[in-house]
Amino acid sequence: MDISARVDYAVRAMLILADADARGAGPISIDTLASEQDLPRKFLEAIFADLRRADLVVSRRGARGGYVLSRARTEISVGDVFRAVDGPLAEVRGLRPHETEYHGVASHLPSLWVAVRASLREVLDDTSIEDLRTGNLPDRVRRLVAAPDAWRNR
C-alpha cells in the first residue's frame, strides 16, 4: 500500500487542528498549518478544499480566520481523512475489491482483495484523529505495532 503525500499531509494537518481544538484555540490559518509541519502551502490549500467538501473541516473568515474541525476529534477517523483526499482505501485496477472477477485458478482472488480492504478499514476507521493525537491507539492497532516483525522491512 502506498500512502500518498496528500494523505500524509492531510492527517498531519488534521492533527494540528485536533490539538488546537483540545487546547481551546480558535481557527488555524493555512500558513500556520503549513509552517508547523513544514508542508507546502499551495498543496495544503488543495487538500483543505477536499477536507471541506468531505465535511471534515469548516473554514472561518476574517482577520482571525482559518480552519477548525467540523465535528468532535473522536468522531473523525483517519479513514475519513484518507478517503476525503485520496478516495477509496483499496482499489484493484480502478475497481472496488468486491467488483473484481477472475476465472480459473484466480477465481478466489476477490476474496483476498476484500480481506485487504477490511484490514485497512479495521485500522484506519477504528482510529480517530484524537486517538492518533494522544497516542491512545485502539488495542488492535497497538497489537499490530507490537508484533515482532512489524517494524522490519520485507
UniProtKB/TrEMBL annotation:
<dbReference type="GO" id="GO:0003700">
    <property type="term" value="F:DNA-binding transcription factor activity"/>
</dbReference>
<dbReference type="InterPro" id="IPR036390">
    <property type="entry name" value="WH_DNA-bd_sf"/>
</dbReference>
<dbReference type="InterPro" id="IPR036388">
    <property type="entry name" value="WH-like_DNA-bd_sf"/>
</dbReference>
<protein>
    <submittedName>
        <fullName>Rrf2 family transcriptional regulator</fullName>
    </submittedName>
</protein>
<dbReference type="GO" id="GO:0005829">
    <property type="term" value="C:cytosol"/>
</dbReference>
<keyword id="KW-0238">DNA-binding</keyword>
<dbReference type="InterPro" id="IPR000944">
    <property type="entry name" value="Tscrpt_reg_Rrf2"/>
</dbReference>
<dbReference type="Pfam" id="PF02082">
    <property type="entry name" value="Rrf2"/>
</dbReference>
<dbReference type="GO" id="GO:0003677">
    <property type="term" value="F:DNA binding"/>
</dbReference>
